Amino acid sequence: MNLNFKGLQDDQLLQLIQGALAEAVSRGGAIAAAARTEFVDASERARIEAEALLKAQAKAAEQERERIQAEAERKAQAAIKSKQEQEYATTQAKNWGMKKAIHLALQEWGVQEDHKLTVWERDGDKRIYFQEDNSRRSIWKVTYYITGNIHHAPGELNWEYMGRADDERLKNLSENKADQKALIRFFEAVSDRWESLNSSSSSALTSKVDVFEKHITAYREALSLTVEVADV
């Protein structure tokens, strides 16, 4: 028999339950035992269901907190990575701009062949190497001793195999005192502005970066370049 209690008010339903339970208990025997069991089972089911609902809600809330936390961490990491990439790109553009300025000034001075420039430092001994960028033969090379050492005085300029240079400016360096002084001034300017670039070659001229006007101006002045040449 399927009874429908939907039309009862809450207090009416409660009275019905109490009355039915009291009647079953008063009858004694199996019906009383069954009524008690049914009541306990229904109460236990209600408790278990209520606990399960609370656990499910708590689990859902925890999962949502974890999702929000994970999303916040992902966004934070993405922001940090983006900032690092921007800083790296800015640093690289600055470094390549500095390199380009060096070789642009040398190009304007008359050095057209491939070359490289290295600032070398060890145990306080700091020097600059300026040489042909060619590993297939003995190359011309200029060394400027910035700090000097046991064998070379501070500010000393040495060169070797300059006759192998293609550019007249370099080929005649040993005979041209004015060019030697200009190159020393240039090396000093490079040393003052060289941050941590270590080595640079004339290939930097092809880089698509802007040069710092103050750098190229200082290098041009050091090399006594009076004619303004547009930056490339």
Main-sheet strand order equals: 4-3-2-1-5
Total beta strand runs: 5
Contiguous low-pLDDT stretches (5 residues minimum) are none
Number of domains: 2
Radius of gyration in whole Å, from Cα? 44 Å
Shape: rod-shaped
* Biggest sheet overview: 5 strands, antiparallel
Proportion in β-strands:
5-15%
Helicity range: 55-70%
Helix/strand/pairing category: alpha+beta
End-to-end distance = 97 Å
Report the order of strands and helices: HHEEEEHHEH
Number of DSSP helices? 5
The overall pLDDT, averaged over residues, is 82
What does this structure look like?
By secondary structure, the protein is an alpha+beta fold. The chain folds into 2 domains: 10-64, no CATH class; 97-222, no CATH class. 56% of the residues lie in helices and 12% in strands. The chain has helices spanning 10-27, 29-109, 168-171, 177-193, 213-222, and strands spanning 115-122, 125-132, 141-145, 156-160, 199-201. It has a 5-stranded antiparallel β-sheet with strand order 4-3-2-1-5, covered by helices on one side. It is rod-shaped. The protein starts with 9 loop residues before the first helix and ends in a 10-residue tail after the last helix. The mean pLDDT is 82.
